[in-house]
């Protein structure tokens, strides 16, 4: 019985690895469910949550400055007419991550899981890193992007990651002391990474 969090440099293969580990351990990979649970609890649309995560810092400022139309905001809020800004997002994210972790045998990717569940009993925190060239190549191979789009995706993904952690007041997300296991995916295959994580959790 365990909870696995996977943090990663964008393009290092976190979602792919999480799904592979879930299949081998018969754990639930909860990436999409996290989004839906946040939306349900905040009474906003799933698209609003996705947009909040993608913009990671700019959505709220645009709302305040009036650069987004009221119609756009209403569509993003959804039928529940709830409310979401960065503070609400972080508060709800904490609640959702703790709730899902309590179900055991789950895999959670990104979103500060290593901080939220830092002292959670039975949680194992994994960090994936890789050099930029390999991360771009991973996006080319697994997401069928052009080289230009793959490079842009890696760059924008890293910016979102940095901005997201600013919401937690954290800058040390690459510090190995936060993790049980750090994997350099430039040197380790996905299959070997699965074996290492499974050995770590005792399976």
Structure characterization notes:
The structure is a single chain. By secondary structure, the chain is of the alpha/beta class. The protein has a single domain (3-200), classed as 3-Layer(aba) Sandwich (Rossmann fold), CATH 3.40.50.300. The chain is built from 10 helices and 5 strands; from the N terminus they run βαβαααααβαβααβα. It has helices at 14-25, 31-42, 46-55, 58-65, 70-77, 86-101, 113-116, 132-143, 147-167, 190-200, and strands spanning 3-8, 28-29, 106-109, 123-129, 181-184. It has a 5-stranded parallel sheet with strand order 2-3-1-4-5, sandwiched between helices. Residues 57-78 have low confidence and may be disordered.
Give a topology summary:
Elements: E1 3-8, H1 14-25, E2 28-29, H2 31-42, H3 46-55, H4 58-65, H5 70-77, H6 86-101, E3 106-109, H7 113-116, E4 123-129, H8 132-143, H9 147-167, E5 181-184, H10 190-200
Parallel strand pairs: 1-3, 1-4, 2-3, 4-5
Helix pairs in contact: 1-10, 2-3, 2-6, 8-9
- Number of discrete helical segments: 10
The CATH superfamily is known as P-loop containing nucleotide triphosphate hydrolases
Approximate shape: globular
Binned, the helix content reads: 55-70%
């Amino acid at each position: 019985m365990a909870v696995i969090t996977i943090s990663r440099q964008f393009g290092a293969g976190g979602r792919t690895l999480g799904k592979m580990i879930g299949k081998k351990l018969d754990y639930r990979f909860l990436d999409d469910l996290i989004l839906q649970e946040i939306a349900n609890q905040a009474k906003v649309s799933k698209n609003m949550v996705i947009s909040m995560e993608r913009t990671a810092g700019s959505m709220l400022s645009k709302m305040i400055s009036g650069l987004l139309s009221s119609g756009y905001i209403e569509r993003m809020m959804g039928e529940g007419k709830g409310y979401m800004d960065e503070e609400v997002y972080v508060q709800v994210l904490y609640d959702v991550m703790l709730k899902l972790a309590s179900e055991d045998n789950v895999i959670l990717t990104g979103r500060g899981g290593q901080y939220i569940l830092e002292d959670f009993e039975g949680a194992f925190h994994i960090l994936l890193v890789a050099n930029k060239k390999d991360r771009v190549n991973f996006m080319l191979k697994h997401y069928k992007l052009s080289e230009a789009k793959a490079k842009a995706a890696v760059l924008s993904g890293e910016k979102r990651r940095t901005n997201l952690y600013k919401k937690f007041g954290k800058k040390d997300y690459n510090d190995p002391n936060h993790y049980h296991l750090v994997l350099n995916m430039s040197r380790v295959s996905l299959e070997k990474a699965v074996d290492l994580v499974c050995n770590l959790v005792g399976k």
